[in-house]
Amino acid sequence: MNNSIKSVISTAKAVLVMLPNNPTFDQVASAASLYLALSTEQGKEVSLYSPSPMIVEFNRLIGVNKVKSELGNKNLSISFSNYDPQGIEKVSWDIDKGEFKLTIVPKAGVASPSSDQVIVGYAGVAADLVILVGGTNEADFAAITSEDLAKVSLAHIGVSQLNVTGRTVSEFATPGAALSEVTAKIIKDSGYNIEADIATNLLMGVEEATQEFSTSGVTADTFMLVSELMRAGGKRLSQGQVKAQDFPAGAIPGMPQNVPSSWTEPKIFKGTSVS
């Protein structure tokens, strides 16, 4: 197995990093870190997708705001809600004063679509390569069975190999105490710089997955990696150490909008109201 992600992305112009359904904190930390690392590659279009919505807990991770809930982002789609298409005479386009202009011409006696009826969206997947993060089988990544991704190259990062039938997958799974541990090694071995933001994500992912290094899968290599991540600027922000100001304003119900940096009241994490 070649541990270099660069070996599979070298010919890809657009890379989609995909999370499984209902991802764990460790999986999101890994995917966000991989997204940040690959985004430094010149000439590569990198996107991050999750079929499930991000929960408040994930807001601690850097880059989680880049996670898209819609897979299609290649083509702009315009449709009209509750409008009879038979009422359209023709559709034309032009460049007017340097701006693209689309004109919908209705038939005589038929009203044009109202602004409330216009629906703007995206369709089609702009990706040459999809990197699957975590998961155990193709059921965790239902999107890869779509027509848009039927012929796209697949790669996988995990702590165990992904079971996918009928598709070739470049496998980068290795055993580890946490997926973030495996991802950190892959990013490092591929020659990408593990900057402070990436190091912080990976460090939090390892801590969360190992329950603060208490699980049986933790080895000396795990602690060596943690040391490297901290030297790279990674910050330990495990759930027991998180302060209210580490969350965006309004992310926690009942938390004041402007929280002083010295405020570390832990009661908000116990379900009690803030006094």
Describe this structure in words.
By secondary structure, the protein is an alpha/beta fold. The chain folds into three domains: 6-72 and 125-233, inorganic pyrophosphatase (n-terminal core); 77-121, no CATH class; 243-275, no CATH class. The protein is 20% helix and 20% strand. It has five helices and ten strands, in the order H-E-H-E-E-E-E-E-E-E-E-E-H-H-H. The strands form three sheets. Strands 3-2-1-8-9-10 form a six-stranded parallel sheet. A two-stranded antiparallel ribbon has the order 4-7. A two-stranded antiparallel sheet has the order 5-6. Strand 5 (88-96) and strand 6 (99-106) form a beta hairpin. Helix 4 packs antiparallel against helix 5 (220-231). The protein is elongated and about 75 Å long. The N and C termini lie far apart (55 Å).
Helix/strand layout:
Blueprint: H1 6-9, E1 14-18, H2 25-38, E2 45-49, E3 67-68, E4 75-80, E5 88-96, E6 99-106, E7 118-123, E8 129-133, E9 153-157, E10 169-171, H3 179-189, H4 196-209, H5 220-231
Parallel strand pairs: 1-2, 1-8, 2-3, 8-9, 9-10
Antiparallel strand pairs: 4-7, 5-6
Helix pairs in contact: 2-3, 2-4, 3-4, 4-5
What characteristic shape results from the CA principal axes?
elongated
| Number of helical elements | 5
Instruction: Specify the CATH homologous superfamily of the largest domain.
Output: inorganic pyrophosphatase (n-terminal core)
Could you give the order of strands across the largest sheet?
3-2-1-8-9-10
Throw out a few tags for this protein.
inorganic pyrophosphatase (n-terminal core), 3 domains, 6-stranded parallel sheet, 5 helices, 10 strands, disordered C terminus
